[in-house]
Design goal:
Helix content is 25%, strand content 26%. By secondary structure, it is of the alpha+beta class. It has one domain: Gcn5-related N-acetyltransferase (GNAT) (Aminopeptidase, 3-Layer(aba) Sandwich), CATH 3.40.630.30. It has a six-stranded mixed sheet with strand order 1-2-3-4-5-6, with helices on both faces. It starts with a strand and ends with a helix.
Length: 197
């Protein structure tokens, strides 16, 4: 990472310091901030509960500039049916649970897109996921259908939506786009071949 961003592992001791995190006013933006700020009470979907999940713990990092919180990112391990129909084999992959950037840092710093804080955070999450690419050869994430800016950002970063998308059973429409990038082509081919035996 450049432009002065530093990375810190999120722990319970950071919880009070993230309570003013704000990445926007739209419902899907508030959902991101609420996850980071959520308490560790039973049944709450929050960063605190996710890092302590006994079966599938999540890793969360805070990204700061001169001690000021710029954004955060989180990864976990999961399985997706590949390419997504009900009878398709399950593929182990790494998933971006949430990633968010404070409002005042969105689009910053000015200059080339690859130098922006959002790109630096995503590049770091990809690098973290690549460490497990032999066993989890794909990095996936979900983006709300109305979040056009994020959809463009991830597609520009090389993520694809060429999987079977989940539809809302009530409306028959996509609510969250399922996006992915392949981290290791050979490992993916080997995993898929092993599921066909």
């Amino acid at each position: 990472m450049n432009a002065g961003l530093t990375k810190h592992v999120f722990t319970k001791s950071d919880w009070a310091d993230v309570q003013n995190f704000n990445c926007g006013d739209r419902a899907f933006e508030q959902e991101v901030a609420s996850w980071l700020k959520g308490a560790d009470t039973l049944g709450t979907d929050s960063a605190l509960n996710s890092i302590n999940h006994s079966d599938k713990p999540c890793r969360v990092w805070l990204y700061k500039l001169d001690g000021v919180l710029v954004g955060f990112g989180s990864l976990a391990k999961t399985e997706w049916r590949w390419p997504g129909k009900n009878n398709d084999p399950k593929l182990p992959l790494t998933i971006v649970i949430w990633v968010g950037l404070q409002k005042e840092f969105q689009g910053q710093p000015l200059g080339p897109k690859e130098g922006r804080y959002s790109s630096q955070i995503l590049d770091d999450l990809v690098a973290e996921a690549e460490q497990d690419a032999k066993t989890h050869p794909v990095l996936g994430l979900f983006v709300h259908k109305d979040n056009d800016k994020a959809l463009k950002f991830y597609r520009d970063a090389g993520f694809s939506d060429e999987l079977v998308q989940r539809l809302n059973k009530a409306t028959g429409e996509i609510e969250y786009y399922k996006l992915f990038v392949i981290l290791d082509d050979d490992a993916l081919r080997e995993l898929l071949a092993s599921t066909k035996k």
